[in-house]
Amino acid sequence: MASIETIRRIRVQQVSEGADAVRRDLRGLVEGQEQVAAAADPVSVATDLASRRQLSAATAYDRLRRSVDDSFKAQQALERGMATANRALQQGATETSGYERTVALLQARYSGAAAEAARFEAAQRSAARATIAAREATESAARSTAAQFQGSLNSRFNIGASNGDREADFLAAAAGADRLRAKLDPLFAVQQAYRTDLMEMKGALAAGIISEDAYTAALGRRKGAFAEQIADLGRRPARRQQGWRPASASSAV
Q1: Where along the chain do its domains lie?
Q2: Complete DSSP assignment for the chain
Q3: pLDDT tens digits for range 42-57
């Protein structure tokens, strides 16, 4: 694709004979040149606008980098200072000794700033890595504590950890919870014992170990005993309030 500069350098050659022909051809040549210039003007304007946008974007990006990157800011300041010092030396505004001293001061100032910025950036990265490592260590410790607690629960309630039998694990956990509750809740312990005895009597009757009459008699006795146990549990709070103590064996005799 031809550039704007190439279009501007088109060479026009023409040979005319006779005064009228020359005048006519010259007028046509002038009109043609004017048309070419008119057609090229919008392209030139567009090219200039595009160039300005590119320069504006580059300037804005440099300004952004200077606001967030101290190393780049120091480098830019050093380049501007060096350019000013070079112009001053070329135009005779300073002597060689003054130029060298100024350059040395510029380099000492902005090179130190760039080094300090680099050290600060390295410290920030190190702190970030330390923070990440601490968080990972905390999460690992939490996972380990949770695993130990789960292992303690599995051992306490006799839950298998490797057989993969979810139903068996649930039943073992439920049985362990019932045993623990029976130790702490007398009423629950009496109810559990009553249910167990009923299941045993029904099993014996189904297996033919006892007769129907024996089962009925045993069931009546067990129901009576259960009712007495429940009533006794109900009387215990009143006995504690009255300071009741069970009689010793010697006093009973």
Answers
A1: 1-68, 185-240
A2: ---HHHHHT--------SHHHHHHHHHHHHHHHHHHHHHHHHHHHHHHHHHHHHHHHHHHHHHHHHHH-HHHHHHHHHHHHHHHHHHHHHTTSS-HHHHHHHHHHHHHHHHHHHHHHHHHHHHHHHHHHHHHHHHHHHHHHHHHHHHHHHHHHHHHTT--SSS--HHHHHHHHHHHHHHHHHHH-HHHHHHHHHHHHHHHHHHHHHTTSS-HHHHHHHHHHHHHHHHHHHHHHHHHHHHHHTT--PPPHHHH-
A3: 656 556 666 677 777 7
Tokens of 245: 């103590």
Q: Note if the pTM is more than 0.85.
A: no
Q: Which amino acid is at 199?
A: M
